[in-house]
Write a structure and sequence with these properties.
Blueprint: E1 19-20, E2 63-64, H1 83-86, E3 95-103, E4 107-114, E5 120-127, H2 128-133, H3 137-149, E6 158-163, E7 167-173, H4 180-187, H5 192-211, E8 214-215, E9 224-226, E10 232-234, E11 241-242, H6 259-262, H7 270-285, H8 295-304, H9 315-325, H10 341-344, H11 354-358
Antiparallel strand pairs: 1-2, 3-4, 4-5, 5-7, 6-7, 8-11, 9-10
Helix pairs in contact: 5-7, 7-9
The structure holds adenosine-5'-triphosphate and magnesium ion (MG).
The site of adenosine-5'-triphosphate (ATP) has 24 residues, from strand 3, strand 4, strand 5 and strand 7.
Domain AGC-kinase C-terminal: 350-405
Biased composition (Polar residues): 1-19, 44-61
Biased composition (Low complexity): 34-43
Length: 405
């Protein structure tokens, strides 16, 4: 059922400038200029245009906007009760903290080792002041609550969450193979078989999330992690939301935004299928279907929907990408009566044995080089900060905003 939001009505993009998050920590990539003390500007972080194939792209930060309104009454469906962290309750002091694996808009992810078992995990650390300043309180609470409500082989598992007086911490399963982003940069583009494998596993991840009425909203190669056997694990539930019908929030990563998000229409799960079309295109072409350094020009291109197809693009893949990137929701694959089955039955993906893929019995096309379970070598090296974790004395005005941490 499609319900109209009450007030406030969402602004249109014409009169609301989407806030481009300027991360305090920046992504550095081996292909980008060496990390230095000088911060990159937000625009420097943008990806290289498609025409400059020799210039590998850099990580791209998501955009966010305040939640304008939502017909979904929050995340009340999920209780804060998480049996996995109840007994014994995990705390920061239980971990050795090792190097940074990745940085995002509001914090960083560190490799950690759980002292009692010596097992490795990834710990996402978010500064409460930053989260509040960027009006991401609801998103961060969603991230924590939805992650703990989910259980799928294609999604990272949340082991526990807690806070000190400064930071929020989420302890996640450590996905040792690194980002799909890294492999895509290394190979520039993937052969069809490789792209089909990742497409298939992302389809299964989305099927699971959508069955839970969760929209993911931030598909991009940086958020697709590769496990030790080469299988997909989606991370970053920073924009995931329980949405049984429609929502209005302007958020996502510019290259991957569906037209209906840009137009500030109410939107639903179909935005994830749109972003899958962007990912398929990017895996096969080596660059996204729409690109401009200026976000407003980029949005115009997305709305115009004119895709510059590389000459060698497989006609069947082209057909599927077209059906996913269509702005017409009554035609978009994934959003029709057949649901995700239309995508799974499409001729480009026809050879996939979906039951085998679901059981992770199809051998992955790329197996990461991993020397031990806590090997961080598949992740880029980031400048470390000398932040102290575990501050329980500073003033903590925001604790009550994060009740499930
Ligand atoms: N479970 C994990 N195992 C290994 N590495 C991880 C894990 N989760 C996240 N990372 C690394 O940390 C990076 C940043 O994490 P994440 O995307 O969750 O942060 P973010 O702040 O939401 O990022 P952004 O807002 O820029 O998309 C990821 O791209 C990945 O490289
Ligand atoms: Mg991310």
């Amino acid at each position: 059922m499609v319900t109209q939001a009450s007030s406030p009505h969402p602004d249109s993009l014409a009169n609301s400038t989407p806030r481009i998050v300027s991360p305090s920590d920046h992504h550095y990539h081996p292909y980008s200029p060496a990390p230095s003390a000088t911060s990159q500007t937000a625009s420097e972080q943008n990806r290289s245009p498609p025409s400059v194939h020799s210039q590998p792209k850099q990580h791209q930060s998501p955009i966010t906007a305040n939640t304008l309104a939502s017909v979904n009454g929050g995340h009340g469906a999920y209780s804060s009760h998480d049996p996995r962290i109840e007994k014994p309750r995990v705390t920061l002091e239980d971990f050795h903290i090792e190097r940074t694996l990745g940085t995002g808009s509001f914090g960083r992810v560190r490799l950690v080792q759980y002292k009692p078992t010596r097992q490795f995990y990834a710990m996402k650390v978010l500064k409460k002041t930053e989260v509040v300043r960027a009006k991401q309180v609801e998103h961060v609470n969603n991230e924590r609550d939805l992650l703990s409500a989910c259980s799928s082989p294609f999604l990272v598992t949340l082991l526990g969450a807690f806070q000190d007086n400064i930071n929020l911490y989420m302890v996640l399963e450590y996905v040792v193979g690194g980002e799909l982003f890294t492999y895509l940069r290394k190979y520039q583009r993937f052969p069809p078989q490789v792209a089909k494998f990742y497409t298939g596993e992302v389809v299964l991840a989305f099927e699971y999330l959508h069955s839970m009425d969760i929209i993911y909203r931030d598909l991009k190669p940086e958020n697709v992690l590769i496990d030790s056997r080469g299988h997909v694990k989606l991370t970053d539930f920073g924009f995931a939301k329980h949405v049984p019908d429609i929502t209005w929030t302007l958020c996502g990563t510019p290259d991957y935004l569906a037209p209906e998000i840009i137009q500030s229409k109410g939107y639903g799960k179909a935005v994830d299928w749109y972003s899958l079309g962007v990912l398929i295109f990017e895996m096969l072409a080596g660059y996204p279907p729409f690109y401009d350094e200026d976000h407003f020009k980029l949005y115009e291109k997305i709305l115009a929907g004119r895709i510059g197809w590389p000459s060698q693009f497989d006609p069947l893949a082209k057909d599927l990408v077209r059906r996913l990137l269509t702005p017409d929701l009554s035609k978009r694959f994934g959003n029709l009566k057949g649901g995700s089955q239309d995508i799974k039955n499409h001729r480009w993906l026809m050879e996939i044995d979906w039951a085998k893929l679901y059981n992770r019995q199809i051998p992955a096309p790329l197996i990461p080089q991993v020397s031990h379970t806590g090997d961080p070598s598949n992740f880029d090296i980031y400048p470390e900060t000398n932040e102290v974790y575990g501050n329980y004395t500073a003033s903590d005005p925001y604790r009550s905003k994060f009740p499930t941490f």
